[in-house]
C-alpha cells in the first residue's frame, strides 16, 4: 500500500466532490468559499478508495464495492456527528456540510 498512489486518487476525487458541493450550494456568502466540505470528503473516501482498489490493486469491482462499505459507514457517522452538533449547539454548519 503506497500512500502517495492513494493520495493521487484522493486529491482528484476530493476536487470533484468540492465542485459538486459548490454547484449544489452556490456562493450566497463569502464563507461558502472555504474548501472544507463534508460532501467532498465523502466522495473522496468512497470514490477515491474504490478507484484505488480497482486500478492499483486489481480487485474486482464487486469486491471493491464491498470494501467501500466501511467508508460509506464512516461517512454516515461523520454526517451524524455534524447533525448532532448542529442540533445540540444550534450552530449553522451548512457551509461545511456543503448541502
Description:
The chain has about 100 residues and is an all-alpha fold. It has one domain (about 5-95). Helices cover about 75% and strands about 0% of the residues. The protein is built from four helices and no strands. The protein has helices at about 5-25, 40-55, 60-90, 95. Helix 1 packs antiparallel against helix 2 and helix 2 packs antiparallel against helix 3. The mean pLDDT is about 90.
Fold blueprint:
Elements: H1 3-25, H2 38-55, H3 61-89, H4 94-97
Helix pairs in contact: 1-2, 2-3
Low-pLDDT ranges: none
> How many DSSP helices?
4
Secondary structure: number of strands: 0
Strand content: under 5%
Number of domains: 1
Radius of gyration over C-alpha positions, nearest whole angstrom: 15 Å
Compressed to H and E, one letter per element, the order equals HHHH
Backbone shape: globular
Question: What structural class should be given to the helix and strand makeup?
Answer: mainly alpha
Q: How confident overall, as mean pLDDT?
A: 88
Largest sheet: none
Distance between the termini: 33 Å
Could you estimate the helical fraction of the residues in percent? over 70%
Short description:
The chain is mostly helical and 99 residues long.
Short descriptors:
75% helix; 99 residues; mainly alpha
Amino acid at each position: 500500500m503506497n500512500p502517495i498512489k492513494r493520495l493521487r486518487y484522493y486529491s482528484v476525487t476530493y476536487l470533484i466532490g468540492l465542485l459538486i458541493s459548490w454547484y449544489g450550494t452556490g456562493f450566497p456568502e463569502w464563507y461558502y468559499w472555504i474548501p472544507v466540505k463534508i460532501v467532498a470528503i465523502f466522495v473522496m473516501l468512497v470514490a477515491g478508495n474504490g478507484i484505488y482498489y480497482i486500478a492499483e490493486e486489481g480487485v474486482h469491482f464487486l469486491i471493491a464495492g464491498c470494501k467501500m462499505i466501511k467508508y460509506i459507514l464512516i461517512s454516515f457517522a461523520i454526517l451524524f456527528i455534524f447533525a448532532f452538533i448542529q442540533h445540540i449547539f444550534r450552530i449553522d454548519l451548512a457551509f461545511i456540510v456543503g448541502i
